[in-house]
Amino acid sequence: MNKSRILVWDAPTRVFHWALALSFVGAFVTADSERLRDVHVVLGYTVFGLIAFRLIWGVVGTRYARFTSFAFGPRAVVAYLKSLLTLRPQHFLGHNPAGSIAIYALLALGLLTGLTGYAHYNALGGEWLEDLHEGLANAMLAVVFVHIAGVIVSSLLHRENLARAMVTGYKTGDPTGAIRGARWIVAALVVASVAALWTGVIPVTDTAPGASAMATSRPARHAEHDRRR
Ligand code: HEM
Ligand code: HEM
Question: Is the pLDDT reported for residue 178 higher than 70?
Fold first, then answer.
């Protein structure tokens, strides 16, 4: 087979991936701190917003970004896992069947964690809601670890650096498998939306309109309120 360097992941999928990883880790490490509550909320909404975009891109995006290209049944998953044991695994240019399960789990858990965070933030439930929110976030972290382990194992068995492909978009394969365009304009819109959330241009915390959501934390505002009284 004629093999060359071909474009597989479009730019929106790559921007989505690394922005999601960054926001998830950021939301997780700021979750415990009252002082960083606003940062946590902004990053949580970013996770939710990115996944909402990904659901649309999974329908209208390029070949390997589409859900139809990684809609595998249980049989395909078992066959792929068995092929891993033979150390000569089946090769997929897009997502492999086992990886796809982790991806769907990450998308679902990210949405649910965001929704329960929103509901808890707006006092729509009691302590059970906070526990549920935390439980979902921890479940997502567990799947992230499995996901990263899967990426490492697949990369070693296929002698193919999958993480680098998620950065550059390129893999080695048959030229007929390549996607045609990277869709940079859509990727730029995703970057602009994330920037608008992070700078407070799209306000999502209860900070005063126009103020940077990242700049003023809740306790700081409470302290000011107390001083005024
Ligand atoms: C930290 C949180 C992370 C989350 C929430 C996450 C989530 C995801 C999601 C949702 C996808 C599907 C991409 C798509 O089609 O849209 C994916 C794919 C991928 N991720 Fe991550 N990821 C994380 C971290 C990482 C890290 C640290 C690496 C690098 C070691 C990595 C490497 C990859 C690769 C290589 C793929 C493509 C897999 C394939 O070839 O089928 N991810 N990830
Ligand atoms: C989707 C990504 C998110 C992750 C990974 C995440 C993670 C967490 C974790 C692990 C906790 C528990 C912290 C602890 O008490 O130890 C927490 C608490 C909390 N989260 Fe999130 N969260 C996310 C999204 C959100 C969103 C979108 C909001 C609000 C709109 C939010 C609001 C809160 C609030 C208010 C708490 C409660 C803290 C408290 O009262 O002690 N989170 N989050």
Answer: yes
